[in-house]
Amino acid sequence: MCAGPYSTLYSLDKLRGHKDEQIIQYWMVHVVYDFMLYGATQTMKKKPPPEAVMSSGLTRFVKNVIDCDEPLALLSIAKWIEEEMSMSLTRFLDFQLSMDNNDSPFVFEKAATVYLGHALNGSETSTLEQVSTFYTAVPEWAKLPAQLVAVTLDLTSGTHTFSTVKFGSSIHDLPSSQLGMKTNSTVQTIDWLRDPRGVPFLFPDNSYGPDSVVLVRLQDNTFVWIVTQMKMLATRQLLDRGTSNDAISSVTPFNFFQRGNITKANQESLKANALSRMARIVEGHGPLRILRVVVAYDAVMPNNIQAYPNGLETDGQYPLARLRQPDYSDLTSPAIDKTLRNIIDPRGVSNALGKL
Hints:
356 residues, alpha/beta, seven-stranded mixed beta sheet, 34% helix, disordered N terminus, disordered C terminus
């Protein structure tokens, strides 16, 4: 079944007790793919899912049950598919994101987050230098192994605890079954910065600046907030100066909360509050750093941005990098790519079932 307020649209009750688990598995995947990627593919033949379903809640995957009320379902479905089927979604996402439609950038934000999550997936060897190309001098701390962490506030003691996030772990081993949170107001964003409640990825409201925020812990117990901005264009080209400057500005703490209808006085107050809470989370646990990251697809950030204002560490802010684009050819094979497309297309059910 697919639980939630709109479960009648996505009910799999007819499969209860079915002896062929491959068929159950196929339809679970098919329904969630339709639910998740409708905005990007525009191929859903049934009634589109209601907006409320696409913008709130969380996703959990347990045996024969899917809870799919989350805007960040991509994070959970990627994890579930890779655990249960030993498949990668990256090649399929590459194919889908190359399609020219208005909703692709929103899916791209989540795809980039999946990639970053896997790049720092609880490994003892991955470093920020390996997954990023720095425009500034590479800090020594960027050469240390880095792991994603989820933060929880102990309301009794007022202290924060940290749990390593591994996509390959059971969902029940994580501090929260929710991998990402979308906030719709400055109040919600500031509240997450006070207590992330075990949810590692924040997709903040538009006024904050970055598209996503996540915390990593380095081998020496230094903590790094990674604030990321995504830029997507339909063609492979260099981002122009204005677009690049806007991306850099949005992840620069000096400019936090400058967007939207926020007064100058409120902007300064909100910025100070946010930075204070980001520091307070790691207070007493280790030093704090901030890394500004820009992700571009299919467009490319320039290799040299020294001529761009506010583009370097000399602007009095923090190190700046761009996320390295993965080599998709090494991640999956044409056969798996075809299988993933068949899973989306009901006409490919027999082929898909033969390969699941």
